[in-house]
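Give me the fold.
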Amino acid sequence: MAAPIVIELLGHEQLQRILQAVGQQAAPVIDAATRSGGQIIANEAKRLAPFRSGSLRRSITVRKVPGASGEPGYVVGPTEPYGLYVEYGTGIFNTQGGGRMTPWTYRAGDGSWVTTRGNRPQPYLRPAFSAKQAEALQEISDAVVALVTGAAP
Protein backbone atom coordinates (compact mmCIF):
# COMPACT_ATOMS: atom_id res chain seq x y z
CA MET A 1 0.00 0.00 0.00
CA ALA A 2 1.26 3.49 -0.91
CA ALA A 3 2.23 5.90 1.83
CA PRO A 4 -0.33 8.65 2.51
CA ILE A 5 0.39 12.13 1.23
CA VAL A 6 0.69 14.65 4.03
CA ILE A 7 0.53 18.37 3.39
CA GLU A 8 1.48 20.72 6.18
CA LEU A 9 0.53 24.37 5.82
CA LEU A 10 2.96 26.43 7.82
CA GLY A 11 1.57 29.69 9.15
CA HIS A 12 -2.04 28.66 8.57
CA GLU A 13 -3.21 30.44 11.73
CA GLN A 14 -1.72 33.70 10.46
CA LEU A 15 -3.29 33.14 7.03
CA GLN A 16 -6.64 32.48 8.66
CA ARG A 17 -6.39 35.75 10.66
CA ILE A 18 -5.50 37.68 7.50
CA LEU A 19 -8.43 36.22 5.55
CA GLN A 20 -10.85 36.97 8.38
CA ALA A 21 -9.62 40.56 8.61
CA VAL A 22 -9.80 40.96 4.83
CA GLY A 23 -13.31 39.51 4.74
CA GLN A 24 -14.55 42.24 7.09
CA GLN A 25 -12.90 45.03 5.10
CA ALA A 26 -13.11 43.70 1.54
CA ALA A 27 -16.52 44.89 0.35
CA PRO A 28 -16.08 48.67 0.81
CA VAL A 29 -12.48 48.61 -0.43
CA ILE A 30 -13.27 46.62 -3.57
CA ASP A 31 -16.38 48.74 -4.15
CA ALA A 32 -14.36 51.97 -4.00
CA ALA A 33 -11.61 50.54 -6.20
CA THR A 34 -14.14 49.35 -8.79
CA ARG A 35 -15.77 52.78 -8.87
CA SER A 36 -12.33 54.35 -9.24
CA GLY A 37 -11.46 51.97 -12.10
CA GLY A 38 -14.74 52.86 -13.77
CA GLN A 39 -13.93 56.55 -13.38
CA ILE A 40 -10.65 56.03 -15.25
CA ILE A 41 -12.64 54.70 -18.21
CA ALA A 42 -15.29 57.42 -17.87
CA ASN A 43 -12.65 60.17 -17.94
CA GLU A 44 -11.21 58.75 -21.15
CA ALA A 45 -14.70 58.45 -22.68
CA LYS A 46 -15.33 62.12 -21.85
CA ARG A 47 -12.07 63.05 -23.50
CA LEU A 48 -12.93 61.07 -26.65
CA ALA A 49 -16.64 62.00 -26.91
CA PRO A 50 -17.48 64.40 -29.73
CA PHE A 51 -18.21 67.91 -28.50
CA ARG A 52 -21.09 70.05 -29.66
CA SER A 53 -22.93 71.40 -26.65
CA GLY A 54 -21.02 69.43 -24.01
CA SER A 55 -24.10 67.62 -22.69
CA LEU A 56 -22.91 64.21 -23.91
CA ARG A 57 -19.57 64.59 -22.16
CA ARG A 58 -21.22 65.84 -18.98
CA SER A 59 -23.62 62.88 -19.01
CA ILE A 60 -20.87 60.23 -18.97
CA THR A 61 -20.87 58.83 -15.44
CA VAL A 62 -20.05 55.80 -13.34
CA ARG A 63 -23.29 54.41 -11.87
CA LYS A 64 -23.73 51.67 -9.29
CA VAL A 65 -26.14 48.94 -10.42
CA PRO A 66 -27.15 45.53 -9.09
CA GLY A 67 -25.26 42.76 -10.86
CA ALA A 68 -26.73 39.52 -12.19
CA SER A 69 -25.71 37.66 -9.04
CA GLY A 70 -27.07 40.35 -6.75
CA GLU A 71 -23.62 41.78 -6.07
CA PRO A 72 -23.25 45.47 -6.90
CA GLY A 73 -21.48 46.47 -10.06
CA TYR A 74 -20.80 49.66 -11.98
CA VAL A 75 -21.82 50.89 -15.42
CA VAL A 76 -19.86 53.51 -17.32
CA GLY A 77 -21.80 55.41 -19.94
CA PRO A 78 -23.88 58.40 -20.89
CA THR A 79 -27.23 59.28 -19.38
CA GLU A 80 -28.13 61.26 -22.51
CA PRO A 81 -30.46 59.03 -24.56
CA TYR A 82 -28.66 59.84 -27.82
CA GLY A 83 -25.28 58.71 -26.49
CA LEU A 84 -25.53 55.23 -28.02
CA TYR A 85 -26.60 56.69 -31.38
CA VAL A 86 -23.36 58.68 -31.36
CA GLU A 87 -21.36 55.56 -30.44
CA TYR A 88 -22.91 53.21 -33.01
CA GLY A 89 -24.31 55.54 -35.67
CA THR A 90 -27.82 55.65 -37.10
CA GLY A 91 -29.57 54.70 -40.33
CA ILE A 92 -27.39 53.13 -43.00
CA PHE A 93 -24.30 53.87 -40.91
CA ASN A 94 -25.44 51.90 -37.83
CA THR A 95 -22.67 49.45 -36.96
CA GLN A 96 -25.04 47.11 -35.12
CA GLY A 97 -27.03 46.26 -38.24
CA GLY A 98 -30.34 47.67 -36.96
CA GLY A 99 -30.36 50.97 -38.82
CA ARG A 100 -32.95 52.10 -41.30
CA MET A 101 -31.79 51.47 -44.86
CA THR A 102 -33.87 54.19 -46.55
CA PRO A 103 -33.64 57.99 -46.24
CA TRP A 104 -36.16 59.81 -44.04
CA THR A 105 -37.29 63.39 -43.62
CA TYR A 106 -37.91 65.27 -40.38
CA ARG A 107 -38.61 68.83 -39.28
CA ALA A 108 -35.62 70.48 -37.62
CA GLY A 109 -35.86 72.78 -34.61
CA ASP A 110 -35.82 75.86 -36.86
CA GLY A 111 -38.84 74.57 -38.82
CA SER A 112 -36.94 73.52 -41.93
CA TRP A 113 -37.27 70.03 -43.42
CA VAL A 114 -34.17 67.80 -43.45
CA THR A 115 -33.67 64.55 -45.35
CA THR A 116 -31.01 62.18 -44.01
CA ARG A 117 -29.69 58.65 -44.35
CA GLY A 118 -28.38 58.72 -40.76
CA ASN A 119 -25.26 59.71 -38.87
CA ARG A 120 -21.89 58.04 -38.98
CA PRO A 121 -20.70 56.47 -35.72
CA GLN A 122 -18.33 58.46 -33.55
CA PRO A 123 -17.12 55.81 -31.09
CA TYR A 124 -15.94 57.05 -27.72
CA LEU A 125 -17.00 54.37 -25.17
CA ARG A 126 -15.45 51.32 -26.79
CA PRO A 127 -12.13 53.07 -27.53
CA ALA A 128 -12.06 54.42 -23.95
CA PHE A 129 -12.58 50.91 -22.58
CA SER A 130 -9.88 49.46 -24.86
CA ALA A 131 -7.41 52.21 -23.97
CA LYS A 132 -7.97 52.22 -20.19
CA GLN A 133 -9.06 48.66 -19.34
CA ALA A 134 -5.62 47.62 -18.08
CA GLU A 135 -5.27 50.78 -15.97
CA ALA A 136 -8.72 50.27 -14.44
CA LEU A 137 -7.97 46.63 -13.62
CA GLN A 138 -4.63 47.66 -12.10
CA GLU A 139 -6.48 50.11 -9.84
CA ILE A 140 -8.66 47.27 -8.55
CA SER A 141 -5.73 44.88 -8.25
CA ASP A 142 -3.66 47.41 -6.30
CA ALA A 143 -6.53 47.90 -3.85
CA VAL A 144 -6.87 44.16 -3.27
CA VAL A 145 -3.12 43.75 -2.75
CA ALA A 146 -3.06 46.71 -0.33
CA LEU A 147 -6.03 45.22 1.51
CA VAL A 148 -4.37 41.83 1.93
CA THR A 149 -0.93 43.16 2.83
CA GLY A 150 -2.40 45.80 5.15
CA ALA A 151 -4.37 43.13 7.01
CA ALA A 152 -1.25 41.18 7.91
CA PRO A 153 -0.28 41.52 11.57
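The first strand starts at residue 60 and ends at 66.
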